[in-house]
What does this fold into?
Amino acid sequence: MQGLRGGENMKLHHNQRQYSRSKVAIAATLTPEKGKAFAVEVVDLSMSGIFVHTDQTLAPNSQCQVSILLGHYQHELPILADAVVVRSIDDGIALCFKSVKLESFTSMQHVIVEHADDPKQAAVECSSHGGFIFTP
It folds into this structure.
């Protein structure tokens, strides 16, 4: 995932994305494999992963669970996924999805297409299931 913001860091990072990204501002909870859950803000969402703003850091390749909260307070319809940390930087963490709960697909597809720079391309990517590994 892109995730780097401005300056020299941007020039040094090569974008290896296969899917369109959508700029969003969505609350989420990140739970490290060996740690306590903490709140984050999803600012970049694609079929393959997310970038979240947080002051926390996690080691590259560490496993975590993410719950992206959609809807209104206490009526959230979360997108649930298992992910691996791609990198941590000063303002956030880039995560690659390992598996996404099957019941989360429709919600994720809607958010990605709605916020995409190119909604038609994002819809094509979603229709091919984006390579997701679905879990019950």
About this structure: The mean pLDDT is 78. The two ends are 26 Å apart (CA to CA). The longest strand covers residues 21-32. The chain has one domain: 7-135.
